Amino acid sequence: MTKIKSIFKINFLLVIFFYIFSAPLKADVIKDINIKGNDRISSETIKMFAGVSKNDDLSENDLNKILKDLYNTNFFDLVSVKINNKILLIEVKENPIIQNINYEGIKSSSILEDLKKNVSLKSRSSFNKIILTNDKKRIQSFLKDLGYYFSQLEILIEELEDNKVNLTYKVTLGKKAKIKKISFIGDKIFKDKKLRSIILSEEYKSWKFLSGKKYLNESMISYDERLLKNFYLNKGYYNVVINSSFAKLTEDQNFELIFNIDAKSKLFFGDLKIEIPKDFSKSNYEDVEKFFQKLENEPYSINRIEDIVEKIETITINEQYESIKASIDENITSNKININFRIKETEKFFIERINIFGNNVTRESVIRNQIEIDEGDPFNEILYAKSLNNIKSLNFFENVTGEILDGKNFNSKIINLNITEKATGEIFAGVGTGTDGSSFSFGIKENNYLGRGVKVDSNLNVSDERIKGRLAVSNPNYKNSDKNLDLALEATSIDRLGTSGYKSNVTGFSIGTQFEYFDDFRFGLSTKNTFEKISVDSNASDKQKKQDGNYFDSFIGLNFLYDKRNQKFQTTSGFFSNYNINLPVLSDTNTLTNVYNYKIFKELYENNISTLSFLFKSANSLSGDDIKLSERLYIPGNKIRGFETGKIGPKDGSDYIGGNFASTINATTTIPMILENVQSVDIVLFADAANIWGVDYNSSLDKNGIRSSVGLGIDWLTAVGPLTFSFAYPITKESSDIEETFRFNIGTSF
To answer: Out of 449, 466, 525, 734, which could bridge 454 as a Cys pair, Cβ 3.0 to 4.6 Å?
Structure first.
């Protein structure tokens, strides 16, 4: 009984406890509002910020909310809120006003302007210590991204009359944090040199004085991780993990950048299937299923997956299936990955509005031109994803993200696109020397001029034989037509008096357009007009001397490009085929030129890239006249190694005069296993074959013989720049050809 009574008492007390604490908080009806401490900010404004007025019922929770709301304005250093005799008392201490902000220690105007963009506090704004702390972190992070890892920042606050302050940011930049070495550890599979070519960060070299990639940048390191992972994913390493990436401080106060890679096992494509809705035509997807058969037992590649998705997208869009959702199911068995591509019909939604945020420089129209769907269209997830990729491919932005929100109606969506812009200007230079002589190049490029998406490119190239300057402007979407408009001005001076008996000075301009006719196939149309002066050596033949004089030529050019490379740079698979023809319109020689170029890439085994390329050129006068000396064709030195550049083919006296036709075949393959521990050296086997023939003014000079050679090439990254050697042995030749067994070149772009 006693036990029952005890339990009853405990339960009664618990009931009373919960009753007390579950009762609503006491609320007061305020009769008046008194505000103290405000100077600049009116009492009415404070009441508005607090969201209160006379006769409001205020609880303790309401008072806490008022306190929070007033602090969130960033106008006040201290805030007190209480109720006394039904009067709401609000007492504040206003934050000072920032009169001036000064920056010391930064001489570069561009760095200073970019730094100011990272600071929230501005002159004539309200001073806030929390915001100041955040600004300090932003400045330090900004300086680190520029490579100033050892910079120091001191903030001075000068108190003035009338509750005002001056801020001074004193920056000691110190020296930039150089990346002295980039290393890769773990189960990395590939050579360090290969992996360095994948990432953006670069080892510090003295000749790279214009490159910012040689300095430590945490943001770039994160991007490097993604590049490395994507590289491995395209090599079959589906489960690759970049365990860590970190910068190790060296004794000389520089950094060693280390990536820890776990490649894991290599996977191959297994069973590939596609599932489509019942009302879809299966015959439309037969090409996709044929592609599946080609991929079976091939190494896994994320790019191949993207190719499949693109094929499916193209078919689906062409069939005008509007409301669909694509998904991929993956299943791993042993060393095979089985993939099922699913296409599902979804509930139909319409796009109410598309908003774009963050484009401070780039015009909105430039971005909207890349969007595959429009306001009022049915929402299509495939087209939405493709639009995001299109915007990213402009290469104007550091980051592009999208979010889909519900619209006003139950069947509408709002798309918000968030853009983070990046610098789009480039400056580059290069020097080189070798058995062919020395060279120098310099250029300035802007890829998003005035935010219009227009590319402006100016460059100068100087070699022992040639000086060429070029200014080009390209609008990739002229008048919203999805077509390029390309304009170019060129001036070239060629001195071949010592080898071919003439000198040429050419100035001209060109206008052209190009567009994607269908997937990976581009068509180009252009017109080129040139003015040329040819000066012939007094020791040249009479036929050559007749070409001394001035010329005007106008051409219409047609270009056809089919590009199926997996990537434009450092290609590992695929091919491209390019045909160009120039038709004379108004010309003193009426020369018709044709150029066809084909190259295929194949990875025969791990760490190997093999290529096979073919080139054919022709130049012939439609009127039967002799073509100009400057239009005659020569074999480039890199297309037929083992011979001096320009020292093969028809010869008139002591001059190598080129030909009307030229063709080359080249095969290369890398040898990754030689000197495996020497990370800075690559070795290549090659075989070259070439022919140059046709002399329109004297067929007796024509020696139609095939030149061929085999050899070994070495690429070596030295402390003074990339050094290339080639050792070539001529197999077939003509008696007039000049051999060059050994060739080297050293130089770099910086």
So the answer is: 449
Return the closest-CA partner of residue 651 out of 689, 700, 618, 707: 700
- Convert the pLDDT of each residue in 286-298 to its tens digit: 888 888 888 888 8
The one-letter amino acid code at 279 reads D
In angstroms, the CA 620 to CA 5 distance is 118
In a shared domain, residues 86 and 115: no
Buried b (16+ CB within 10 A) or exposed e, 237-271: bbebebeebebeeeeeebbebbbbbebeebbbbbe
Cβ 131 vs Cβ 198: under 8 Å: no
Query: Which CATH number do you get for residue 604?
Result: 2.40.160.50
Neighbours of 351 (CB within 10 A): 21
Nearest to 543 by CA among 625, 429, 455: 625
Do residues 115 and 106 touch, judged by C-beta distance below 8 A? yes
Structural domain boundaries enclosing 380: 350-421
- Residue-wise pLDDT for 708-746, tens only, equals 999 999 887 766 667 888 999 999 998 889 999 998 877
pLDDT tens per residue across span 223-266: 888 889 999 998 899 999 998 777 777 777 788 888 999 999 99
Of 262, 292, 322, which residue is a domain's last?
262
Closest CA to 656 of 676, 637, 678: 637
The residue among 692 and 204 whose pLDDT is bigger is 692
Residues 557, 480, single domain; the answer is yes
Chain-wide mean pLDDT for the chain? 84
Last-in-domain residue among 243, 262, 281 = 262
Are 559 and 522 in a shared domain?
Answer: yes
> Tokens 């918000």 label which residue?
416
Whether 132 and 212 share a structural domain: no
Whether 22 and 163 share a structural domain = no
Give CA–CA dist 106/113, Å, rounded. 10
> Same structural domain for residues 503 and 356?
no
Instruction: Say if residues 535 and 614 touch (Cβ distance below 8 Å).
Output: no
